[in-house]
Design goal:
CATH architecture of the largest domain: 3-Layer(aba) Sandwich
CATH class of the largest domain: Alpha Beta
Strand order of the largest sheet: 5-4-1-6-7
Radius of gyration: 44 Å
CATH topology of the largest domain: Rossmann fold
Structural class: alpha/beta
Order of helices and strands: HHHHEHEEHEHEHEHE
Number of domains: 2
Number of strands: 7
Number of helices: 9
């Protein structure tokens, strides 16, 4: 082959190698750019996807919890508002009923449940404690005269804690309402006794009064003495002809008689409005709170000893 032929062959071979090399290099570049990924890069990429997924799920869970919490909070606020509204309504209705001597049958049905809550959840006990504390503060600021003419009139029926209750002349059945009122009666008895003992220790002359008939005097006195309620000067009770008299009028007449006899009535203490109104009710009256549904429901014709475990006033 001539020298020219060898030269042409070399050029052709060089062009072929160059073309094939370029083609192979282009294919390698495409592979790296399109589908090739190292193991470490793949690990980082997958970890990132997992992290993002977990974050999204956590966010969804948090939003769900927040939504449920908001719904529960709103529900709780509404329930609290409804309970507060019912409580305030029943408490004011009870006060209105006492002032106007309304019958228990006029009470709204919702007040029965509110009454049970008022006693069972301890609010009635707190109200009693506050009232007795106010009364004790008043008497601590005064000193009775040594002549025994400064007297305090106190409702013996509160001290006795009668458990006999009537509604529309029908005995209350032994249900939750009856049980709660029985508990309330006992609490009122305890706090009334606490105040009575405080007055006795401060040497205030006490005159007790009761709605019970005179024929039960001996039983009533024995009951009072059995509870360490002694030291009072007299016990006002009604004879048969006075049993039909309005008790407010009856007690007003008795207080008038005391005034005419030279006594000074410093205070009258009772849980019943009929004992706190009328003539000569004293310098200060103290009304022990009643549960809703209890005011003016007690039948004082008989004495029923308290069956609850006996607590002393200082143990309340």
């Amino acid at each position: 082959m001539s020298a020219y032929g060898h030269e042409m062959e070399r050029e052709y071979s060089a062009q072929s190698l160059s073309t094939r090399g370029s083609s192979e290099m282009g294919s390698h570049y495409t592979t790296e750019a399109g589908i090739y990924m190292s193991a470490s890069a793949a690990t980082v990429f997958i970890s990132g996807l997992v992290t993002v997924g977990i974050s999204v799920v956590s966010l969804l869970i948090a939003l769900t919890v927040m939504l449920n919490s908001c719904q529960s909070r709103n529900s709780g606020v509404l329930e609290m508002y409804r309970n507060t509204h019912d409580y305030d309504y029943c408490r004011n209705f009870a006060l209105h009923a006492e002032l106007n001597s309304l019958g228990a049958d006029l009470f709204p049905e919702i007040c029965k449940d509110i009454n049970i809550q008022y006693i069972k959840e301890g609010q009635y006990k707190r109200d009693l404690n506050i009232t007795v504390g106010i009364a004790e503060g008043f008497f601590s600021s005064l000193r009775p005269q040594n002549d025994g003419r400064d007297v305090v009139l106190m409702d013996a029926d509160d001290l006795l804690g009668s458990e006999t209750l009537v509604v529309n002349d029908m005995r209350i059945k032994k249900d939750n309402l009856h049980g709660s009122i029985r508990d309330a009666n006992y609490l009122k008895h305890i706090f009334a006794m606490k105040l009575c003992l405080k007055l006795q220790s401060s040497r205030w002359p006490l005159i007790l009064f009761s709605r019970r008939p005179e024929k039960l005097r001996n039983t009533t006195v024995e009951h009072l003495m059995s509870m360490r309620c002694h030291g009072w000067s007299s016990l006002i009770m009604r004879i048969d002809d006075e049993m039909l008299m309005d008790f407010q009028e009856f007690l007003s007449r008795r207080r008038t008689m005391l005034q005419r006899e030279g006594f000074h009535i410093t205070s009258v203490i009772s849980s019943q409005m009929d004992a706190l109104s009328g003539r000569y009710s004293g310098d200060r009256v103290f009304k022990l709170p009643n549960p809703f549904f209890q005011y003016n429901m007690e039948d004082h014709s008989e004495i029923h000893p308290i069956q609850t475990s006996k607590l002393l006033p200082n143990e309340v």
